[in-house]
Amino acid sequence: MAAPPAYVVDLGTSTCSLGYAGDDSPRRYLSSTYSTSSSSTHTKSDTLNRDLEACKTPNLRNLFSDKGDLDGTREAALSEYLEDGLGYSKSQRDKPLMFVERSSTTDAQRQKNAEILFESEGFPGLFMARDAVMACYAVGKSTGIVVDISGSRTTVTPVHEGWVEEKATLTSPVAGDMMDIKFKEVLDGLNGKEALPKYLVSAADPEDVKETRGGEYYDLMSMILGRQAREMVGKIADFGYDPEDEKNQTIIPQVFKLPDGKEVEIGIERYESGEMLFGKDCTERELTAASSSSLSPSPLQNLICDAVFKCERDQQAALLSTVILSGGGSCVKGIQERTRLEVENIIHTHTPGWRVKVLAAANPERRIASWLGGSILASLGSFGENWITKREYDESGSSIVTRKCP
């Protein structure tokens, strides 16, 4: 009889994906943002329907602060996400957990996370997987440059034969959230006034607008409206795009319907948010905000090339031949070809013979690439000996994570 499947969990910056090994998609998607009130914290799937409450997006992949102190709020949120997403209480968990984590997570943080997952959450087995490696596995590769455009950051990670090249990993704050905010501003401009998110507009009467605006929840829902528009009608411009070029002034506009029923026509404006990724359309305000995050807002093509050049010379050509796009922020038309041409424009100035190939799965798979790679890995019959069992953990302590989970 086949062994029962493992749980696979990827707690991203925008969406938490939870399901079983061997599945093509998660069983549950939960928002990574939870709402808080003076009386309780809500992390269930109805978070986005809660009005007038503060919203927080914790880094659930790391339950501890930089100082090593346990963050009780994160631990409580993780516990609820696991129970609600997997559908099993702690006492019912009889399957090992494939826990997808950021590739930059330190050994100390990984060990402390393992303590929580074994001792507090009660999993009988555990494997802690690097998200970049899992994104490679999702497209059948073990070597490549993984470009993960999440909500809060863009991370470029070289992976060589299943191992993360940590010294070459680079990060930028220009990512999905910043593009979504930009697209929301585009909608506001075309609408002639602020485009209201859906929860402020009565379904029965679009003219019946609720009074309350502002606050963290309002900002979140406004950003989600921008994301919906970006993914539906947004596009990455062709290489060499010039907004002043006459041919770009005559493109056929596309229609986007706002929550209040009004339709706006989006022409050349559809390119604005995507240009931010390539360092071409960031305003001074946006660059200042990006710089305040302590991350460098470098153009995407520079991040990719710089990460490659930080690796060993004999690895570089192979890495460039497998550039892998992942994350929800990469789900926009035209990004695959534009990325290839921008990188080639840099690389071919000194190594014209190198071939640049960009891999991008369909949007649904691209959005969950790390989870999907974890599902594939955990379902392999040969993977069984890689699980850290509760017995091994009890005998060796949390340091076993460093040895068994590269």
UniProtKB/TrEMBL annotation:
InterPro entries, sorted: Actin (IPR004000), Actin_CS (IPR004001), ATPase_NBD (IPR043129), Heat_shock_70_CS (IPR018181)
Record flagged with keyword Ribosomal protein: no
Hydrolase recorded as keyword: yes
Catalytic activity: ATP + H2O = ADP + phosphate + H(+)
PROSITE patterns: ACTINS_2 (PS00432), HSP70_1 (PS00297)
Alphabetized UniProt keyword annotations: Hydrolase
PANTHER family documented for this protein: ACTIN (PTHR11937)
Protein name, UniProt field: Actin-related protein 4
Taxonomic placement: Eukaryota, Sar, Stramenopiles, Ochrophyta, Bolidophyceae
